[in-house]
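Class, look over these structure tokens:
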Amino acid sequence: MSGIGYQVSGIYLMTFIFCNHFLTSVSAFFLPGYFGDLIKKETGKTAQDYIQAKVIDVAKERIFDQSKSVSQIAYELGFKYPQHFTRLFKQRVGTTPNEYRMLN
């Protein structure tokens, strides 16, 4: 791979790693600001906005697994406190995870 395709694939991979709690390990490989600058250049979003959007995308898929509680999904996504997940979800989607589950 080369060029932008490689960078976008790299962004997706790095997002996956960030969302799975390897931030401290991965950040050792980058100069300060490099990841954020790369995300901003390729997506127009800040790294935080990009990562949060990806987390919410995954959450939207997992929310339909009725065998899991919202708290379980929050923990799987790396949230220490489920209420932080619920707050972020509501900010991004406009409904709580339970409301989203019932509406869809």
Remarks:
- Residues 1-9 have pLDDT under 50 and may be disordered.
